[in-house]
Structure formats: C-alpha cells, structure tokens
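Re: that backbone. Tokens:
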C-alpha cells in the first residue's frame, strides 16, 4: 500500500477508536470513509523524522471544511503531556488546513497532531476526531511560512481589475459588490454579509476559509449563482481564474488583506 493510502486507512480507523488504542492489523481497504470530510494527506507525513522545529503543518481534506469551526480547542499538537498553542486557517483553493506552532517545538521529540470534536464540512457534516499525523522533530528551523505575504496593490488588484471590475465596478456594481478599488472592497466586501450564503461574509480578513468570495472563484458546487468571473449570457462560462490567481486571492486574504507592498 502507498504511504498515502496507509495514512488514509490509519486515520479512518484511528478516528473510530479511542485515542491511544493501536489500529487493528487487518484493515478492510474497501471500508467506507467516515461521513464528513476526512484527511487524505498530511505534511509532515506519519512517522517523518528530522522535522523542523518551526514546522507549518498542512492537512489536505477529502472535501472542504468550514473555516468557521476552526478554533484552538479543535486541535491538539502535543508531545507527551506538553501541548503547543497553535494558529491556523483553512485555504479552500489548495484544500488545506494550515496549522503552525506559536513558538518553537521541542527538539528531538515525538509530536502528535490530533483533531478533536467540533470541525465540520460545509454542510455541517462532522469531521471525525482522531490523530492526523505524528512525527519527530530534529534540531533546526526552516519552515515558518504559513502563507506567502501578498498585497493588494501589486498582487490582488491586477486580478480584480482585469477579471472582475467590468461588472463589479462603476456607480452600480453587480450584486452591490465593488472590486474596482480598495474603497469599493472595504465598503462592499470586507465583513459584509454575502447574498449567496447569508451566514457568511464576502471577505473576512485573514480567513480565506470563511470568505464566500473564495468559494465563488473556485466554483464550489454549493455556491449560489455562477462561478466567478462569469459571462452574463445563460449557459456560457467565462475562463476561470488560473490556479495561481486563485492562490493569490486566498493568500492575500490569509495575509490580512494588506493594502500596499512595503
Ligand atoms: C460578467 C459580469 C461579472 C464578472 C466579470 C464577475 N462577476 Fe461576480 N457577479 C456577477 C453577477 C451578475 C453576480 C450575481 C449572480 C451570481 O452570483 O452569479 C455576481 C456575484 C458575485 C459574488 C457573490 C456576491 C454575494 O454576496 O453573493 C462574488 C463574491 C463575486 N461575484 C465575485 C467576483 C469576482 C471575484 C470576480 C472576478 C474574478 C467576478 N465576480 C467577476 C457578475 C460578474
């Protein structure tokens, strides 16, 4: 079995077991996955050694998780009795939960990254608790970038201006959403409730996984209306943003919607 498949099976089984119980020797490879989104890969991988003591942990899920459910109490990054305070966000473009320790991890120690109750998928379907990965630290630092710093002026504005502002600009922008300049964004998008998913805001600074706009550009199956950018004729679909452009928008939000490059 590939290490990835092993991890999936391990996570699926450990989720159903009380923590601390070893997974059974024989696993059924055709076993149905748990109901909510489940982890399909983790970095660092299970059993990895020599991991940086400032490691950013990235977990890919089988489907999107609801960023609103991400609270410190839903994770444990621990080494024996020691628990590390972590920071985190969900990146819907890469489909990854990003978690990083608030200070350096203890060197040459085994760390276990575990999910507790509380995380759900976009439809409220619970994510099963369980161990995501365990690894051993080395002695060095070298991976402390939870996102590339991204700015409005040089990074996000060129995308909004070229692909969105023709409709989301001017005196009466479509859907009352203005993406043509910073004023428009701050007045009509930042912390402004979305029409499509009224319990969500269009953009929540620092939280791409809680920003409806990100789901509109990736064209998630659950959005209301069309993937953005759209064409106004029925039945036609505009060229979506490239993966790189989508990542720029997500990273700009994760960076805290910074205005200008220093
Ligand atoms: C051809 C016109 C057009 C273009 C180009 C366009 N949009 Fe839209 N947008 C609309 C219309 C019309 C709606 C409302 C209907 C819908 O959601 O499909 C909308 C809705 C939205 C919404 C949902 C607002 C809410 O509160 O529910 C978001 C977010 C959005 N657009 C973002 C973008 C982004 C980001 C781009 C560029 C990448 C973009 N749009 C490009 C016409 C456009």
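Recovered sequence:
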């Amino acid at each position: 079995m590939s290490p990835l498949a092993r991890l999936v099976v391990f996570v699926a089984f450990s989720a159903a077991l009380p923590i601390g119980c070893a997974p059974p020797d024989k696993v059924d490879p055709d076993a149905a996955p748990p109901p909510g989104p489940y982890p399909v890969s983790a970095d660092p991988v299970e059993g990895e050694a020599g991991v940086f003591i400032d490691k950013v942990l990235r977990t890919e899920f089988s489907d999107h998780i609801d960023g609103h459910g991400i609270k410190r109490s839903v994770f444990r990054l621990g080494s024996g009795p020691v628990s590390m305070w972590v920071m985190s966000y969900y990146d819907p473009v890469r489909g990854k939960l990003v978690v990083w320790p608030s200070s350096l991890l203890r060197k040459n120690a085994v760390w276990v990254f575990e999910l507790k109750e509380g995380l759900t998928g976009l439809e409220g379907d619970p994510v099963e608790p369980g161990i995501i990965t365990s690894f051993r630290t080395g002695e060095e630092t070298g991976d402390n970038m939870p996102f590339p710093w991204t700015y409005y002026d040089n990074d996000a504005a060129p995308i909004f201006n070229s692909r969105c502002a023709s409709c989301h600009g001017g005196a009466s922008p479509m859907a009352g959403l203005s993406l043509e300049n910073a004023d428009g964004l701050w007045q009509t998008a930042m912390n402004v409730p979305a029409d499509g998913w009224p319990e969500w805001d269009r953009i929540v600074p620092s939280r791409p996984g809680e920003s409806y706009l990100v789901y509109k550009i990736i064209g998630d199956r659950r959005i209301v209306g069309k993937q953005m950018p759209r064409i106004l004729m029925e039945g036609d679909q505009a060229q979506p943003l490239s993966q790189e452009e989508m990542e720029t928008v997500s990273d700009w939000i994760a960076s805290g919607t910074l205005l200008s490059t220093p």
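Residues 152-254 form one domain. The longest strand covers residues 130-136.
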